[in-house]
């Protein structure tokens, strides 16, 4: 991201202001911030859902120089409200018949939905599935597409803890070689990230490993962690510290 500004209408003030940061290939980045901080607008800019100033470069290519269809087909997203349409589970996973059945079966097995079967009927919007199942279908779709960039837009905000854990575990296993951007309300889903990007009022205010950010007791992330309550605060700090120590021990081996 180079000098990125984004407004949803020409006469409106920008919702993203002078963003300058780089995410490395295969990096797992958590994106946090209070309501209205610009988290979802950041993702909108990546998909070019609105006009922007500045440059967003993916794999040495400026996103404005490639077609929208090509750009969006290279990035998988699991939104908070999964998009599912009326038809078979197979059609929801592979609407253009691009993949063989064994690829789809393997993806269903990864998300523990194999017993549903590829011919299971899905209602419009997935109304005959639970919230968790809808998210898992979207995750299976992302596994099938096997893109190098995965975006989770508050994807676990509405699911039960067990499904949340399954989603996190599957992402760590299946997308280890991908760049993963996770927008999260619940800090526990991103405290083991390689780095956390903290947004406030449309700007990036902090960007580093969570353990490093938490050393600044008056910082933005520290403030958000403290607001979770004493027990959760200690748990979050422990996860961040253990991940930091694990990373450092791995680099010194």
Count of the domains: 1
User: Beta-sheet strand percentage?
Assistant: 15-25%
| CATH topology tier name | Rossmann fold
Q: What's the alpha carbon Rg, rounded to whole Å?
A: 19 Å
The CATH architecture name reads: 3-Layer(aba) Sandwich
Explain what you see.
With 253 residues, the protein is α/β, with parallel strands linked by helices. It has a single domain, classed as P-loop containing nucleotide triphosphate hydrolases (Rossmann fold, 3-Layer(aba) Sandwich). The protein contains 9 helices and 13 strands. A 6-stranded mixed β-sheet has the order 7-10-11-3-12-13, with helices on both faces. Strands 2-1-4 form a 3-stranded antiparallel β-sheet, covered by helices on one side. Helix 4 packs across helix 5 and helix 5 packs parallel to helix 6. The radius of gyration is 19 Å and the shape is globular.
